[in-house]
Amino acid sequence: MSVSGEKIWLDGSFVDWADANIHLLTHTLHYGLGVFEGIRCYRTEDDRSAVFRLPEHVRRLFDSAKINLIEIPFQPDEIEAATLETMRQNHLTEGYMRPLVFIGDGEMGLNPGNNPIRVAIMAWAWGKYLGEESMVNGIRAKVSTYSRHYVNSKMTKGKTCGDYVNSILAKREALLDGYDEAVMLDTNGLVSEASGENIFLVRDGVLRTPPSHTVLDGITRATVCELAADKSIPVEQRPITRDDLYIADEVFLTGTAAEVTPVREIDRRKIGNGTRGPITKRLQETFFDVVAGREPKYERWLSYL
Ligand code: PMP
After folding, report:
1. What digits encode the pLDDT tens for the residues 202-261?
2. Residue in 159, 171, 270, 297 annotated catalytic
3. CA 114 – ligand 1 centroid, Å
4. Are strands 259-266 and 250-255 parallel, antiparallel or unpaired?
5. Which of 26, 29, 170, 208 has the most CB within a 10 Å radius?
6. Confidence of residue 293 (pLDDT cuts 50, 70, 90)
7. What number of other Cβ atoms are within 10 A of residue 109's Cβ?
8. Quick one: 208 and 165 in the same domain?
């Protein structure tokens, strides 16, 4: 699906969508050192619009930049305000926001020298990342032949542009092989995450997700862990093997784009009874209640437009 819109926030002011262009010598374009976020805004019960967990996303953007020795020339509150304003300028009441921090043109070669650090914020309407029907019936996933980067090559706490080559290879392989998504193992062979989502399994009523050291610390992952604890569903963060997934009662993925997506099959093994499981359904429904402002306890996670 190609995306389009009206305005893009670029280095502090809005420019027309068609005029938001960059030079071909942009350093990030060549070498991949840049950082980004993916954030969603939802229509709320009372006909307003709210961005979900905006401060947490902006904090992770700054953490990603710090990990990569990039100094963002704006303060976090300025990025938060600009993200909200980008939604308004594009007349969107729900959708996806993409802040991107990149290194501009100037010097070439691996050392970016004093090239400018540039910031863009884009927003567009985006439906269900893995398809509307998948939210009910679940997706089919395959364990990738590609490993997740070793933690000391790709540091996992940052959302770094170039790291996504690994995700793209895994995602395309899965699609070409007739699956919807790729589950990736770490270099020790333990389950890490999907190409752009964290992964959970349910076995005997207990929710399990891999510990955070080889995965992106997903904001949806943290949300689901908190919602589960709230509902007295036990949550464990401990290593998961590939066959743990095969014999799970339920498996689901979490992410800003994918939200809470059930997995019905992995590597031709049916998961549970091959459809969305009851705990997945409960957590998915609670998640959509929270983002739509139907859970007063979690209003604190909403930044209204
Ligand atoms: N893992 C990876 C590799 C991702 O790209 C994402 C999407 N940001 C996630 C997990 C999920 O993170 P979040 O819930 O914060 O979107």
Report:
1. 999 999 999 988 899 999 999 999 999 999 999 999 999 999 999 999 999 999 999 999
2. 159
3. 30
4. antiparallel
5. 170
6. very high
7. 9
8. yes
